[in-house]
Write a structure and sequence with these properties.
The chain is mostly helical. It has 17 helices and two strands. A two-stranded antiparallel sheet has the order 1-2.
């Protein structure tokens, strides 16, 4: 994760601007205990990105969720999280980072309890959206608290290294934890588990974390937040409607939502251009290097989130894996990212960002293409594992330079919003990719069932395999598009990389 700045993402301003209750010289061990609390909260937020993916097949069966609608269990969370992240950072800056951190913890726990007790799909989706909302308050507040708590360069480097390790390893932990809870307890515990974690972090945070606020203005871009989030929700809903039987891409419902999404997103851009305190300053996005970075991030995570979704269903529905075995089967992917990232950090100053990213995207594209050959008789070791390793190594080659490029040539005032936009593109890309690929999956399965005169009310393994192949090919196209975006737009060399001491790469 990259360090946020005061402008929009919950970053810390220089010491004189902040009201800060204690000096760095006071209670040094106190600071590290505070970091432990913040790290626990971040782990909880990161876990929810993968823990539910492994549990989703079980939740779908229990709550009778359709194939077209199941993606809302993921996209409701990521859309709310990514869409409100910038606003959440501003709220934390102005109302108090500790206060918003604690509010985020309690709200996240309450939303998790609601999701765990869900009686139908709508209740689960609503709870996941609430989780995303409170995560959008919690995550930038947590980063800001690290920034204002650790001001000495060496200590800040150590603190962000801990935070980055939690962010990078959390996805792997989520896969194992989700599988274990689903298999030995219930999918509901994948949500209930957040409650004790949040309560412990809240109590410890009340005691150990020190309050701080921004000394600047208190202007909120509420219209921008509403328009941007509403536009993204309308876009995803349009994709979902297109996937439903008897509706399709050319239906009035689908077209209406997609046109409405376009209008809302254009209005968002116009509001941002005219706002005195925009959530998304256009000068940040329109820089060539950063613009290419954001486009690539959006496309990469669109393909990546969908990969996890379809592999989870392939392992459990087609190969008959338990939830735990499915989590373990995806684990090499997370391990490959964590291990390779350290080597990439050392290479980046020597090569610059572009060569690494192009090689990484080529590897990820080839890796995802290998999944288009899976079948009901495929061997995990021979067919899936090579693709997972290619994608994981390739992704590490992409993510480390991405975080540096997001800050290349940016002013101090815009550093936080630049890194926060990168985080938002990852969440929003995941939302749009999951809904889009799930739509094509559902359409492909329906077409296969009709063409082969199969029973549409039962699970058809060959129809599902066909749907996976279609979805993976679209994912390949998204990765290839990211390659083109970096090739054409990014011009920064190794001398242009922004120096960000102590800030770990990746998101």
């Amino acid at each position: 994760m990259t360090e946020p700045a005061r402008s929009g993402s919950g970053t810390a301003p220089p010491r004189p601007v902040d009201s800060f209750a204690e000096t760095d010289e006071e209670l040094p061990s106190h600071r590290w205990w505070a970091l432990a609390v913040i790290a626990i909260a971040q782990l909880m937020v990161v876990l929810d990105g993968t823990v539910v993916t492994i549990a989703l097949p079980s939740a779908q069966r229990d709550l009778h969720i359709s194939n077209a609608d199941r993606q809302w269990a993921i996209t409701a969370y990521t859309l709310a999280f990514g869409g409100l992240l910038l606003l959440g950072g501003r709220i934390a800056d102005y109302l108090g980072r500790k206060r918003i951190f604690l509010v985020g913890l309690i709200g996240f726990a309450a939303a998790s309890a609601l999701g765990g007790a869900a009686q139908n799909g709508a209740m689960l989706f609503g709870a996941r959206a609430l989780q995303g909302l409170f995560a959008a308050l919690l995550a930038p507040a947590a980063l800001s608290l690290i920034s204002v708590t650790f001001t000495e360069v060496k200590e800040r480097a150590q603190a962000f290294a801990v935070y980055g390790a939690i962010s990078g390893g959390g996805a792997a932990i989520g896969l194992i934890l989700g599988g274990t809870l689903t298999e030995y307890a219930s999918w509901r515990w994948c949500l209930f588990i957040n409650i004790p974690i949040a309560v412990v972090a809240f109590i410890a945070g009340t005691i150990l974390v020190t309050e701080s606020k921004s000394g600047g203005g208190t202007s909120y871009d509420i219209p921008g937040a509403i328009l941007g989030t509403a536009g993204l929700v309308a876009l995803v809903y349009g994709f979902t409607q297109a996937a439903k039987t008897g509706v399709g891409w050319l239906s009035v419902e689908a077209i209406s939502y997609l046109v409405g999404a376009a209008i809302l997103l254009v209005a968002f851009v116009l509001v941002e251009l005219r706002s005195a305190s925009p959530l998304l300053p256009m000068r940040v996005v329109l820089d060539r290097n950063r613009g290419g970075t954001y486009v690539a991030s959006l496309l990469v995570f669109a393909g990546l989130f969908a990969m996890f979704l379809f592999l989870s269903y392939y392992f459990q529905a087609n190969l008959g894996y338990s939830a735990l075995k499915a989590g373990i089967a995806v684990l090499p992917f997370s391990g490959g990212v964590v291990v390779t990232s350290a080597a990439v950090s050392a290479l980046l100053p020597r090569t610059g960002p572009k060569p690494l990213m192009l090689v990484g995207l080529a590897m990820a594209t080839i890796g995802l293409a290998t999944f288009t050959s899976i079948s009901d008789t495929s061997s995990w070791a021979a067919t899936v594992l090579p693709g997972e390793l290619l994608i994981s190594i390739g992704l590490a080659l992409v993510l480390v330079p991405l975080s540096s490029l997001a800050l290349t040539g940016v002013s101090d005032n815009d550093a936080g919003v630049a890194s926060a936009v990168l985080n938002s593109t990852q969440q929003i890309g995941g939302s749009l990719g999951t809904s889009l690929l799930n739509t094509f999956y559902a359409s492909a399965v329906s077409s296969y069932v009709i063409a082969h005169h199969l029973n549409p009310s039962t699970f058809n393994p060959l129809a599902a395999i066909h749907g996976y192949h279609v979805a993976f090919w679209i994912g390949v196209g998204l990765m290839a598009a990211a390659f083109v975006a970096i090739l054409v737009l990014v011009k920064a060399g190794k001398d242009d990389i922004a120096a960000q001491p102590g800030v770990p790469a990746g998101a």
